[in-house]
Amino acid sequence: MARVKISNPYLNSNEVDFLSHFSITCTEDVRKEFENVKFVCMSGSSMRIKMYAETFHNETGVDLSENLCKTDRYAMYKTGPVLWINHGMGTPSLSIMLNELIKLLYYAQATDVIFIRVAISYGVGVEPGTVVVSSGTLNGLLEPIHIQQIMGEVIKLDAKLDVDLCKELYENALNLDIPVGKGLTLSTDDFYEGQARLNGAFCHYTKEEKNEFLQKLHSLEVRNMEMEGTCLAALTRKAGIRSAIVSATFLDRLNEDLERMNLSPDCFHDFEMRPFKVVSALLIKKLKL
Ligand code: R2B
């Protein structure tokens, strides 16, 4: 059985740790509450993660907790061995959430935990609505690396996802009535220029350069882009946690001149439920629900 790993000698001297962005004090009760966690499903938005947790509860009959985060930074729900938590947009927000969640699961002595980002993203050469199971992640420099800036230095961490988990998610998804693809996920620190959009407040390149860049991404086997993948992959690897990313793609950046989404609310909802369906099918199978 694999325990969640942390690597910080200074934590040992803390009597009782306090997870300030969750407002959770890590007393013995934390073990009772979180020791059985086997899956953590995460998404950017607090509304979406609540909807996923409620849908899982309605479909499986497993009890749904109240919101376990006592601050307005994040929202966290529990359905038996599955935690549902949002992480906000981008690496800084995700990284704060992951640091506290990894400590929480470490104190709880949870074992064999799997983290899955149930995500929204933008496609590269896939039909809008396709669910992309990430085979790996690239940062904005097109390297499979998560970059941290620590005390004036650049620290590079391997940002590989769990290959077997990705394969299992992809093969399971093929049995569902949902368009599915796999490929690399570009993870940027900026939504507009970072993802070569033409509709930000600033634009450092021409439309032709944007098109060339998107074609380059496609030839590198990038199939979608978002803003959290490398950080998730790198920090979970450090903690000995297997992780994967399953994303809805809202438009195909190769085919759209418009950089903004133009989906009806029903279509948006259908698309954002698709990665949830892929992930919940795997959870139901693995947990024998
Ligand atoms: C996808 O959507 C958000 C930006 O709109 C960001 O969190 C991401 O990765």
From TrEMBL:
SUPFAM superfamilies: Purine and uridine phosphorylases (SSF53167). One of its GO terms (cellular component) is cytosol. GO terms for biological process: nucleotide catabolic process; uridine catabolic process. Coiled coil: none annotated. Transmembrane segments: none annotated. Gene3D superfamilies: Nucleoside phosphorylase domain. Residues 39-282 form the Nucleoside phosphorylase domain. Belongs to the PNP/UDP phosphorylase family. This is Nucleoside phosphorylase domain-containing protein.
